[in-house]
């Protein structure tokens, strides 16, 4: 076990649907601490950097278009095993395969509009926290 940082995004669909409070509350109830929090709207350049690992995949264009489509909320969450804990709270990438009780399982249907992002490794957590909160690094 190790204390980790994860970068989560309340994506534009969740923000527009008024689910920001519900989503942040679920992470807090899990035991993760909000270490940084902001509302922002991404430029295409920042979106392409954040999702750089997916460059070249068939859904990349749509992903960038969606994530830049409106305001979102970014947060750094901190805690024991924060990467895995946050992804458990979020649920599987495809909401139709996400467990009931997870955010995607409870509130989403389509893979392209799946409400939340969470870093997938401690290294990604540090890299993504630097993209969204450069003033802290
Ligand atoms: P995220 O990065 O947003 O937290 O999602 P994730 O780790 O669960 O999934 P990832 O593989 O990193 O994919 C990033 C986002 O791309 C969209 N996607 N669409 N059409 C498709 O087959 C497909 N696959 C992925 C999803 O919106 C996913 O969250
Ligand atoms: Mg991912």
TrEMBL record:
<feature type="binding site">
    <location>
        <position position="114"/>
    </location>
    <ligand>
        <name>ATP</name>
    </ligand>
</feature>
<feature type="binding site">
    <location>
        <position position="87"/>
    </location>
    <ligand>
        <name>ATP</name>
    </ligand>
</feature>
<keyword id="KW-0067">ATP-binding</keyword>
<keyword id="KW-0418">Kinase</keyword>
<keyword id="KW-0963">Cytoplasm</keyword>
<dbReference type="GO" id="GO:0004550">
    <property type="term" value="F:nucleoside diphosphate kinase activity"/>
</dbReference>
<dbReference type="InterPro" id="IPR023005">
    <property type="entry name" value="Nucleoside_diP_kinase_AS"/>
</dbReference>
<keyword id="KW-0547">Nucleotide-binding</keyword>
<dbReference type="InterPro" id="IPR036850">
    <property type="entry name" value="NDK-like_dom_sf"/>
</dbReference>
<keyword id="KW-0460">Magnesium</keyword>
<protein>
    <recommendedName>
        <fullName>Nucleoside diphosphate kinase</fullName>
        <ecNumber>2.7.4.6</ecNumber>
    </recommendedName>
</protein>
<comment type="subunit">
    <text>Homotetramer.</text>
</comment>
<keyword id="KW-0546">Nucleotide metabolism</keyword>
<keyword id="KW-0597">Phosphoprotein</keyword>
<feature type="binding site">
    <location>
        <position position="93"/>
    </location>
    <ligand>
        <name>ATP</name>
    </ligand>
</feature>
<dbReference type="InterPro" id="IPR034907">
    <property type="entry name" value="NDK-like_dom"/>
</dbReference>
<comment type="function">
    <text>Major role in the synthesis of nucleoside triphosphates other than ATP. The ATP gamma phosphate is transferred to the NDP beta phosphate via a ping-pong mechanism, using a phosphorylated active-site intermediate.</text>
</comment>
<feature type="active site" description="Pros-phosphohistidine intermediate">
    <location>
        <position position="117"/>
    </location>
</feature>
<comment type="similarity">
    <text>Belongs to the NDK family.</text>
</comment>
<dbReference type="Pfam" id="PF00334">
    <property type="entry name" value="NDK"/>
</dbReference>
<feature type="binding site">
    <location>
        <position position="11"/>
    </location>
    <ligand>
        <name>ATP</name>
    </ligand>
</feature>
<feature type="binding site">
    <location>
        <position position="59"/>
    </location>
    <ligand>
        <name>ATP</name>
    </ligand>
</feature>
<dbReference type="InterPro" id="IPR001564">
    <property type="entry name" value="Nucleoside_diP_kinase"/>
</dbReference>
<feature type="binding site">
    <location>
        <position position="104"/>
    </location>
    <ligand>
        <name>ATP</name>
    </ligand>
</feature>
<keyword id="KW-0808">Transferase</keyword>
<feature type="domain" description="Nucleoside diphosphate kinase-like">
    <location>
        <begin position="3"/>
        <end position="137"/>
    </location>
</feature>
<keyword id="KW-0479">Metal-binding</keyword>
